[in-house]
Amino acid sequence: MDSSFPPATDPASSQPPLASEATTATDSFAPRTDLSHLSRHADAIRQELGKVIVGQQALAELLLVALLADGHVLLEGVPGVAKTLTAKLLARTLSVPFSRLQFTPDLMPSDVLGTSVFRPQQGEFEFRPGPIFASVVLIDEINRAPAKTQSALFEVMEERQITQDGTRYAMPAPFVVLATQNPVEQEGTYRLPEAQLDRFLFKLNVGYPTVEEEIAILQGHHAGFGGTPLDAVRAVVSAEDLQRLREQVRRQHVEPKLLEYIARLVGQTRAHKGLYLGASPRASLALLNGAKALAALRGRDFVTPEDIQYLAPMVLRHRIQLTPEREMEGGTPDDVVKQILQQIEVPR
Questions:
Q1: H/E stretch holding 75
Q2: Bridge-based pairing state of the strands 114-119 and 124-129
Q3: Can you give the CATH number for the domain in which 144 is found?
Q4: Where is each AAA+ ATPase domain found (predicted)?
């Protein structure tokens, strides 16, 4: 095998005990709508990823959730843990245009969005689209570009369009940004603006592989003299297929009391004494859409409280800011999210 995702720490480490117990029970209910089409496509993507990846079912599931929920993903991890490979392989399973951007300190907004070129023969300017005009856009080391370039992403990530010289240019559908960043290295990096972080559906922490998984990686490379080539991963889902699956996800049933539960969870981040900045209503929408997609992937046409609890850390960790006192105590955003989940009463 060529490489491996390291184990994602999100699902196991940041969830209350209630989530893992109740999810098994609720997954056994027969859905009222036919989710077999969605399951087949999801299984096909997992199978293609499995040609190169060792383990990492949880991370693959979260990426599929983001795709179905029409959201962008920020992958954070130390160098060498296959963040870029993750995005590249996922893009290869989709029959849609793909582009890759390497963010650097000297990158300009026109290098991302495109530029207008004057045509003397026609006596007018012609717009040349930049690499952002693709369905799946991989941005490597997104925190290496300065604020001027980061601001160029605000409109396109939220509205799926750019405005150049007073003209609106729409992005192709679907449109997903997969960005990576290194949490350790500080030299030559810039902090991402809060407004930009808020536009990411999930922030996924990519950790190291287990010993067993790393042994499997070594065995695959040794036996295959370099492992399975990336060309072995083929496209199994078209843009039309993805659009139909997203429409099915949007129709997922959500009880009114769960909408209130989401609002209370997110609202508590704005009143928590350990937080300097709480989550915006965009976080509530992200939690709702993500829970719908997760339920569909797990074979249900209705959302449960456990779906919301499971996704809360990934949705909220990059949208909240700790107070200086809480940071000095060694607290983390995930700790605060876990505390809030324990404080809010779970609807039944």
A1: strand 72-76
A2: antiparallel
A3: 3.40.50.300
A4: 69-210
Residue position matching structure tokens 């495109």: 114
Tell me the C-alpha distance between 215 and 210, whole Å.
9
Residues spanned by the domain of 338: 10-343
User: In this structure, is residue 228 part of a structural domain?
Assistant: yes
> What's the number of domains the chain is made of?
1
Element (H, E) at 40: helix 36-49
Q: How far apart are CA 334 and CA 329, in angstroms?
A: 14
- Pull the structure tokens for residue 154: 């605000």
Tokens (6 digits) for 126: 């012609």
Nearest to 137 by CA among 89, 87, 173: 87
Block residue for tokens 């659009």:
243
Beta-carbon count within 10 A of 108 CB: 13
Pairing of strands 176-181, 72-76: parallel
pLDDT of residue 201: 96
Cβ atoms 18, 97 nearer than 8 A: no
Query: Strand 136-140 relative to strand 98-102: parallel, antiparallel, unpaired?
Result: parallel
Amino acid present at 51: K
pLDDT block averages, 10 residues each, the chain of length 348: 45 42 47 82 89 78 95 90 84 93 92 89 86 94 90 92 89 93 78 92 88 82 64 89 94 95 96 91 96 95 95 96 90 93 91
Instruction: Tell which residue, 187, 329, 309, has the closest CA to residue 258.
Output: 309
Picking from 7, 25, 138, the residue whose alpha carbon sits closest to that of residue 61 is: 7
pLDDT of residue 165: 82
Cβ-proximal residues to 296 (8 Å cutoff; 6+ apart), any chain: 35, 38, 68, 248, 249, 252
**pLDDT of 229:** 67
Of 264, 342, 260, residue with least CA distance to 303: 260
Asked whether the beta carbons of 189 and 145 are under 8 A apart, the reply is no
**What is the predicted pLDDT for the residue at 66?**
96
Does any domain span residue 285? yes
User: Amino acid letter at 347?
Assistant: P
